[in-house]
Amino acid sequence: MHKKILDHLNEAILLFDNELNLIYINSAGEIMFGDSARHLTTSTASELFGHDAAFINDLRNCLKTHEALINRELVIRLGQQTITTNFSATVLFEDNKNCGILVELQQLDQHLRISKEEQLLSQQHAAKMLLRGLAHEIKNPLGGLRGAAQLLDMELSDPELKEYTQIIIAESDRLQGLMDKMLGPNKPPQKSPINIHEILERIRTLVQAESSGNIIIKANYDPSIPEIVADKNQLIQAILNIVRNAVQAINKKGEIILKTRIHRQMTIGRKRYRLTLRIDIIDNGPGIEPDMMHQIFYPMITGRAEGTGLGLSIAQSLINHHNGLIECTSEPGHTVFSIYLPLENGNDTNR
Fold first, then answer.
1. For residue 92, which of 8, 294, 311, 315 sits 20 to 30 Å off, Cα-Cα?
2. Averaged over 251-273, what is the pLDDT?
């Protein structure tokens, strides 16, 4: 009963014995440390927390003095990464003797990610509403302009003059197509069970052929990932847009990695999902300029003179149609676009 309660908490709960050997960890702790309880319970506190001597000494003093330890916004090391947490440690007693120490970790980085996600979704919704209004205002006179050009073309007999009307018609069609792209997909996804790795391999083969061998595209898949229910064509378009964007960022020679993993207990758009598929598109290009990072998913925003700035916007819209989300982190030599797709129906949460 107690284990079921602890497994439903968002905070990581760890129980150590008097020698600081881990004897229990809940589901949130498994997610934080990226490993199963079966593997983690063979570890010591020193191994789990990156051999941080000061942190381990705090735990030992807590056991010695029997006083609770609380630390806000503590930066701790977990393997190769550092996270910011609210930390507390409490000594447990049985028959008036201490029998271990209970550690609670609340990851602040996760709360910041959720806040950032909500802001991103809100910005995208506002941008989409603005674009719909703008497209409506442009498409109406554009249709009239094209119609007038067609009528004029029918009245003209001089081939040289007809050439001008044909230019007007062609440019009107081009602008119409651009407006449609800016608005993104207008059809609901036609979902069916698909293997995500078949899609990724198709994209990898296609883009590898386009790059003429100058860019190496590697695969790092988790073969245990089950089929997902999604629109195959929409996923191909979304992921292909991101991979091609990575190829253009690398420019001449480099490496792209397509990586899949399962994430547990993740919240997207105020819904909590027990299982979520994460697809990472990683490139070793020059990275994205910091002042561009908050704008890259907006239509018409691009760092390339020849770019339209629609690829990432369309990709985000397609993934949103699957209740998913795309996030990006970037530094010189390491840019990661992460696609999150729920593998099940989510539960509403107040977070």
1. 8
2. 82
CATH, residue 316: 3.30.565.10
305 pLDDT band, cuts 50/70/90, is very low
Same domain? For 131 and 277 the reply is: no
Same domain, 200 and 311: yes
Residues 63, 117 share a domain: no
Q: Does one domain contain both 196 and 177? A: no
252 and 335 together in one domain: yes
Say how many domains are in the chain: 3
* pLDDT beyond 60 at 194: yes
- Residue 221 contacts by C-beta under 8 Å, 6 or more apart in sequence? 197, 200, 258, 259, 260
Residue pLDDT, tens place only, 332-344: 899 999 999 998 7
22 and 63 inside one domain? yes
pTM metric for this prediction: 0.57
pLDDT above 90 for 220: yes
What distance in Å separates the CA atoms of residue 236 and residue 340, rounded to the nearest whole number? 15
Domain termination site, one of 79, 111, 143: 111
Evaluate if residue 133 carries a pLDDT over 70: no
Question: Average pLDDT in the 197-201 region?
Answer: 95
Q: Give the rounded percent of residues in the chain with a pLDDT score beyond 70.
A: 79
Q: What range defines the domain where residue 150 resides?
A: 112-183
